[in-house]
Here is the input.
Amino acid sequence: MYVLLGIIAGLLGVLVIVTWYTSKRLVGMPGVSQLLPLSPFRIPLLADKMYIFGVPNGASRDLLKSTKDGIARITTFNSNTVFVSNLEVVKDIMLKKSDNFYKPTEFYDYISLFGDNLLNTNDSEWRKHRVVADPAFAEQNYTYLIQKSAEATDMLIERLQAQHESKGRTIIDPFDEIQDATLDVIGKVAFGYDFGIFKPKPIPKGFQMSFLDAIKTTLTWGIGVNLTTPNFLKKYLFPKTTLAVAETKQYMNQLIQDRRNDMDAVKYDLLSMLVDSNLSREGGLSDAEIMSDVFIFLIAGHETSSVTLQWLLYHLCVHPECQDKLYEEIKKVCAVDGTFTMSQYEDLHYLRACIQETLRLNPPVVGIPKKCRAATKIGPYVVPAGTDFVVDVDHIQTSEQNWKNPTTFNPDRFDSRSSDYVKKHPCSLLPFSLGQRKCIGFRFSEIEMAVMMSKFVLYYKFSLPKDDPLMQTKQVLKGDITKWQQVTCKPYYLRVEFTKR
Ligand code: HEM
Here is the structure.
C-alpha cells in the first residue's frame, strides 16, 4: 500500500516539476497549467484546462479576458500553447509576419486518411496543391453549386413535407437533416456523384458498401480509428471501418479514372476540375494527391456549412423578428419559382448579414493553430522557436473589446444599409481564417448556405418546439444553448419545429 502511494506521489511530483519547468520557458506570460499533455477529453484536475472534445469550459476565454494585452499561455505538461486575441498580434501572425508562422499539421494528419493534401501541408508542398485547386473555386463555377444546393434543399423539403403529412407536424433534429442536404451537395459538387441520400440507389458491382455508407462510416469512425489504432491491427479490430476506408478510396479512384476516360465532357465538379487543372501544369499532383484533396473538401466542406445553418436556424427561432425581416427580403428578391442566381445572392443583404452574424457568434472552427519557426516577439513577450499558438477565433469574435453587445444576435451590424453597421478591424472576424491559408471554400459555403436558407425561409416558419422541455429552458430561449466541441463546435441538443407558411 505504502509502496503504491509512494509511486503515485513520485509520478505526481514528476508531472508537477516538468509542467512548472515548461511554463517558465515563457518568461512573464500570464497563464495556467495542467498536469497532462493535451488530452482528447476533459479529465478533472489533470486535464481540465485544454482538451479537444466536449463542452468547452472556456479556460482560454477566461484567461484572455483577465489579461490586459490579449496574450496568455496554457501549459500542458511539456508543451506551451499561447492563446492570442490581441488584434495587432493576430495581424502579425496571420498577415504581416506570416512567414514566421506555419500550420502545425499533426492535428490535420489524423483526418487526412488518404495522404497529403491542401489542409495538412506547408510551404512548397502546400503551394503545389493550392495552385491546382484555386481554379476549381473560381467565381464562374458557382452556378453549378447554386443548382445543386437548390436541388438538395428541394429534396429535403419534400422529405419534411412527408413527415408533416404522417405526423401532423414537423420537428427536426437539424443535425441529421441539414447534414444530409450538405452531404448531398458536396457529393455532387466535389465528386460529381449522387450518393443517393434522398433517393437510395443500389450498390454498384465490385463493391460491398454503397459510396454513401462507406463515406459515412469513414467520416464517423475512420478518423477515430486512425487516431487510436496501429495500422496492422485495424482490419482485425475494426473490419467494417477498414472496409469502408478501402472502398471510399476505390470509389474515388474510379471517379478519377472515369474523368480521365471522358476528358471531352464539360464537367463542373471539383474533382473533374482538379484533374483538368492538373493536366495543364507541369509537375502537378499525383492521382493520390488529387483524391486526398477532394476527400478533404468533403470533410471540410459539409459539416462546417451544416453546423452554421443549424446555428442560424436556432438564432432565427429565438429572434422571430429577424425571421420576418428575412422572409420579406427573400420574398422580394427571389423568384417565386425558387430559381436563384448570383445577382440575387448579391441583393440578399440581410440574408448575407444573418450568415455573417452566425459565423461571428458561432464559428464552427473556434481556434486556428499556428507554430512559430523562429524565436519571436509578441507584445511584450519573447517566445522560443517551435512554440504553439492558437488564434482564439471564438473569443475575438465575442469580445467586448471588438464588438458592441457582443453576445446579441444582431445581423444589422453586417448590413451596410443599417445604422448599426460598423466598419471592423480586419482581424476581428475570422471564421474562415485569414491570409494565404484562408479557407479555399469560403465563398462556396456562403453561397450554398444562402441558397438553402432562402428556400427554407420562403417555405417555413421556425420555432423551438413548445413541448420539448430541453428547448424551453430559460437559457435556451434566451439564445444561450450549450455548445458542443467535436471536430466543429455545434449546438449540443437542438430541435426545431418547421411550420409551413
Ligand atoms: C462555414 C463553412 C466553413 C468554415 C467555417 C471553414 C473554416 C475554415 C478555416 C478556419 C480554415 C483554416 C484552418 C487552418 O488554417 O487551420 C479552413 C481551411 C480550409 N477549408 Fe474551410 N471552412 C468552411 C467551408 C469549407 C468548404 C465548403 C470547403 C471546400 C469545399 C473548405 C475547404 C477548406 C480547405 C481545403 C482548407 C485548407 C486551405 C488551405 O490551407 O489552403 N472549407 N476552413
